[in-house]
UniProtKB/TrEMBL annotation:
Pfam entry (one): FtsJ
Domain Ribosomal RNA methyltransferase FtsJ as annotated: residue spans: 165-252
Keywords in alphabetical order: Methyltransferase, Transferase
Organism of origin: Salinisphaera japonica YTM-1
Lineage of the species this protein comes from: Bacteria, Pseudomonadati, Pseudomonadota, Gammaproteobacteria, Salinisphaerales
GO molecular function: methyltransferase activity
UniProt name for this protein: Methyltransferase
Length: 331
């Protein structure tokens, strides 16, 4: 059997950046600050893509960090598609509508069906690269990305009846990235729990939940057999009053300084627990203050697709999730 010789693939263009971060416009300033704080240089900003030089690795404010970027000149649509297919199979095209040719290239790539995840389920394991056209004749590609979802956004089979609000999606996303979730009978603390979206997630998994809030939880959640509610100040709760816990979750609305102290306390008080905590950021983000979270051993931070102007702090037993930023950055 003979094979036709494959035409040679084009050589990548020279680039002066190491990482590309996809960021929502509302968080671009915070991302730029973060990258500068990490000692990286912003080389260019093209729409929602921020190109940075210096190995900062995953950035907390990025929706997705492209970790192995390369650029190619675009001689033809066929050549671009061939180049992508030669690198790997699975690609997500980012913002293809900018250029008609991008859609034509995408049409020549294998179709990927992004099936909604039925929680709890591990994230997809197949590598998913990202590519985009940054000019009519310039393609940027990265076979390695920080998140296993298209543009970093997981799709879920949503539950429109059980939870009292949509905040449950934030905890689903955090637990999916953590690749772990509480099991039956595990003790979970949910700080700032009302009206009960997170408590609902934990209780559905069969965990025993102590839900603390000044406000009441929805009766259907508060009344569950594996949920105990406590009305009052969540900052006044300590390990002596809760007893041992395997999970500490907090979605409290409070100043980041107070949440930093809270994270320090629970990471020390429950050294083996998995800690997941929302860091609410008001207005301009203080990059120095955010950096202080990394002083907690094992700390990671990520902007989840379900997050608003806030980050999610992780301190997990296995040091993950890899999708979240840590300090110092990965080599
Ligand atoms: C974003 S909401 C939590 C939503 C919740 N995770 C859910 O899934 O339904 C923040 C909560 O923090 C509570 N909160 C703020 N400060 C508090 C404090 N010092 N002590 C207790 N609860 C507090 C508020 O009452 C509010 O219910």
């Amino acid at each position: 059997m003979t094979h036709d010789a494959l035409p040679e693939l084009p050589a990548p263009l020279a680039i002066d950046y190491d990482t590309v971060h996809v960021v929502e416009p509302a968080h671009q300033a915070a991302l730029v600050d973060e990258l500068q704080h990490r000692g990286t240089r912003i080389v260019a900003i093209e729409g929602d893509l921020v190109m940075a030089a210096g190995r900062a690795g995953v950035a907390a404010w990025a929706a997705n960090s492209w970790l192995a970027p390369a650029e190619y000149g675009l001689a033809s649509i066929n050549e671009a598609a061939r180049t992508l297919k030669a690198i790997q199979r699975n690609w997500h095209g980012h913002h293809l509508a900018h250029f008609r040719r991008a859609e034509l290239i995408a049409a020549k790539l294998p179709t990927i069906r992004f099936r909604p995840l039925a929680f709890p389920a591990p994230p997809p394991t197949a590598p998913l690269g990202a590519w985009s056209l940054v000019a009519r004749d310039r393609m940027i590609v990265s076979p390695v990305c920080s998140r296993p979802f298209a543009d970093g956004q997981p799709l879920f089979v949503e539950d429109r009846h059980g939870p009292p609000n949509r905040a449950y999606l934030k905890l689903w996303e955090a637990l999916i990235l953590a690749r772990r979730w509480p099991g039956v009978g595990q003790r979970c603390l949910d700080l700032g729990a009302s009206p009960g979206g997170w408590t609902w997630v934990l209780a559905e998994l069969g965990a025993d939940v102590l839900a603390v809030d000044r406000a009441a939880l929805a009766p259907a959640i508060a009344g569950r057999a594996n949920v105990v509610t406590q009305a009052g100040d969540a900052f006044a709760i300590d390990i002596e009053s809760t007893g041992p816990v395997e999970w500490v979750c907090s979605d409290l609305i409070a100043y980041p300084e107070r949440l930093l102290a809270l994270a320090h306390y629970w990471c020390r008080a429950a050294p083996l627990a998995n800690v997941i905590l929302t860091v609410k950021c008001q207005g301009t983000v203080d990059a120095g203050l955010i950096a202080a979270f990394y002083e907690i051993p094992g700390a990671r931070l990520a902007h989840l697709s379900a997050n608003k102007h806030e980050l999610t702090f992780f301190r997990l037993a296995d040091g993950g999730p890899a999708e979240a930023a840590r300090w110092p950055a990965e080599a």
